[in-house]
Amino acid sequence: LLPQAGYLHPDEFFQSPEVMAGDILNLQVYYPWEFLSSSPCRTVVFPLMTSGVTYWVIKSLQQLDICSSCINSYTLLVSPRLLFTLFSFILDYSVYRLAPFWEVDPWKALVLLAGSYVTLVFYTRTFTNTLEGLLFALLMLLVSSRKSDGSLAEPTSSPLVGIITTAGFFNRPTFLAFALMPLLYWAGLIVDSQKSIKTVINHFLKLVLCACFTAIVFVTADTFYFTSMGLDNLYSIKKSSLFDVIGQLNEKMIVTPFNFLSYNLNPYNLALHGSHPRVTHFTVNGIMLFGILHILAIGAGFKMLKKYIHQLIWVKSYCHGSSGLLVHSEGSPTLLLFYFVPLAFLSLFSHQEPRFLIPLILPLVLFSTSQNRAVKWKHVIIIFNVLGALLFGCLHQGGLIPCLFHLEQLMHSPETSIHPRHYTLLFAHTYMPPRSLLNIKKRDTHIEVIDMAGSEEETLCRTVEQRANNFTCNDCHVFVIIPGTVRATITKCGVSFLNETLIFPHLSMEDPPQIPFLFSGNWRSQLGLYILQLERDQ
């Protein structure tokens, strides 16, 4: 309810809340290319079930006069995050239930999970990766069950396994990398526990049928959405006959995961989003997210591999290739496979971001808790997660959301409602601003948002000068939003400002502060975001 100001990545807004704010609340938003009818690469089902539901609730409360001003920048930010925070307890429940299965102390595992900044920051944000992590947790829960006497229980959750696997695939096709080991483990349990081939086939049939039914639901919903392009237009479908609707679906069946894979399997497309060395997940991202736990897992993995190779050589040399090899290693080899197999598959792609790995926190926490590995590094883990929470939860692009709150209040002040003014908001060297947080109705044409991203000095100055020379009305207001580290650039543009507001803190890793300035009297400026009101050029 006191929202973190840190802005992790544009996808936390532009893959769910921004789209739903435009469709349900009729606000001016920026639709990302994945949600355009010309290139549908993201399912609309999960955005509807999360941000869509919360926005529908606050819209209904306002329409019923229960809350006269329910729709504002605060509720637009907090309501979807609150729902995701509630969903994040699925992770806690899964750890509590899975710990006895993997012979781990559940309370120690829960403390390790709850103290991780990945849980506190990433799992309270509206990422598709967050949903991927929760579905992965549910899948692990379904395939891991014991009887009261401690023996393995017979798998009976084939339909649910099929539903969750398919839902995860439609949410993010990379879910198959996470689902591979749980599905193989589940299949092994099925084959080992069943004496009849007929029963085995029955389990797999249930899985396939439920997976197909789930896929049909997603494809139908996405086809309706993208062919009508928006929720508002869906209501017009009711006026059409059933045969017209079926004909429309058959004419253009949209399967978003296939479009996603088609786009991302093209190296040129991935390069547009940034190319990284194939070892980035192993050497950088894993450590950035999980710290010493990732390093401990790598060490244990190498030990397990070394023992396996030694045992394999011994078996071939002395037992003439006999079977029945059993690998003993520190902790559970299966949990290590649950961690490293998805990591290896995700490393095949050249575009590698830290958030892609957040679902792996579950097997890593379970593995790290076994044999009290994490306890030995308790102080290191605490310091690492405190620093991570501060950096990503508060500092990283931390001025942008408070800036949008400030501008929303300014543009919706009582004075502005009596005498409408024209506002131009020019953002430079910040992450893409989510327009939805400005709470501008689509019919309002007096507010213009310009995102200049990381424009060069010459381009930025030219644009600012044009705005200063071309005030089209007496009540026109132009604001330039720029990090303190780039503030000197604006002074070279030859324009003056009526006033300036500094929002602190704001750390831009794209334009990092210079270390000497951080020890000067100007350090707040280096860690701040400026809102500069442009003065009319006389």
UniProtKB/TrEMBL annotation:
**What GO CC annotations are associated with the protein?**
endoplasmic reticulum membrane
Q: Give yes or no: UniProt keyword DNA-binding.
A: no
Q: Please provide the Gene Ontology terms (biological process) for this protein.
A: GPI anchor biosynthetic process
Source organism superkingdom: Eukaryota
Q: Hey, what's the signal peptide range on this chain? A: none
EC number in record: 2.4.1.-
The answer to whether keyword Electron transport applies is no
Indicate how the chain sits in the lipid bilayer: Multi-pass membrane protein
Q: Which UniProt keywords apply?
A: Endoplasmic reticulum, Glycosyltransferase, GPI-anchor biosynthesis, Membrane, Transferase, Transmembrane, Transmembrane helix
Question: Which residue ranges traverse the bilayer?
Answer: 175-192, 204-226, 282-305, 382-407
The protein's enzyme class: transferase
User: Where is this protein chiefly located?
Assistant: endoplasmic reticulum
Localization, per the record, is: Endoplasmic reticulum membrane
One of the record's GO molecular function terms: alpha-1,2-mannosyltransferase activity
Q: According to its UniProt record, in which pathway does this protein act? A: Glycolipid biosynthesis; glycosylphosphatidylinositol-anchor biosynthesis
Family recorded in the similarity comment: Belongs to the glycosyltransferase 22 family. PIGZ subfamily.
User: What is the name listed in the Swiss-Prot or TrEMBL entry for this protein?
Assistant: Mannosyltransferase
